[in-house]
Amino acid sequence: xxxxxTARRVGVPPESRPESALSALSRAARPKQWLKNVLVGAAPxxxxxxxxxxxxxxxxLTFVALCLASSAGYLVNDVLxxxxxxxxxxxxxxxxxxxxxxxxxxxxxxxxxxxxALTVGALVSVGVGLVLVLYLALTxxxxxxxxxxxxxxxxxxxxxxxxxAVAGGVAAPVPLTxxxxxxxSFGALYVVAGKRYADVLQAEEGTGRSWAVVPYTVSYLRFxxxxxxxxxxxxYFVWSxxxxxxxxxxxxxxxxxxxxxxxxxxxxxATVDRGAAGSPEDVVLRDRGLQVLVLLWLVSFGIAADxxx
Length: 309
Known about the structure:
This protein is mainly α and 309 residues long. Helix content is 71%, strand content 0%.
């Protein structure tokens, strides 16, 4: 009789019954975090080319490749951090840390997913394949120990966000302007610093033990996410004012898009300030006000980008 059958017969609640390997593997892949990979559409959207049929197809494949690659990175990280995760208040529930998924199976799955990601990326273009190689190298290097380097770890996680956007630009292909990269880079740093801020607050308000790999202070992280938010907003302002001069077009929609962009940054900042931005994807999925602002920004930004595309 299997452990699951035994649990069912003795009336163990469903949530405490043994989890299948497939279910554990699916959970360890963290599909909810695939939401981050929609950044592949940022560069072609800014260039007014996202909805061209050929571009949309390449972007979809790049999105799939990044989902596979990011899941491979999560699995490797969970295996390398299994000892620490087992004493963490929330990470101990992860499949590898809880024992629902064996480290060996997790590594085999990670290798398979990484190979599949590179194959799909190479089908799009050699450039996308190279970006994926860099992304995998960065995420694995981070898990192997680079995350223990103060400030460097913030830069590496931010770079992973930026590489998603770069992959989308290379796939289209469209030019990656300096202001696009400025906004993407500081926007990513803003989100990452907000996540670290939540981790530190959780540690201070809970057991007092620092669960963060690098011991940042609350005041330092507040400075980082404030600086990053300001830089991203300034970069976006400059882009919006430049749009009117591009190819002789004049589009008020670029300036209009500044309002929902800044309000979305401020709305997210309120969540960061409460220490509730530990999972950025959850913030986006649950905050209806933020979703409305993002939708308004997408509409106005899309119209402005189409005018100069």
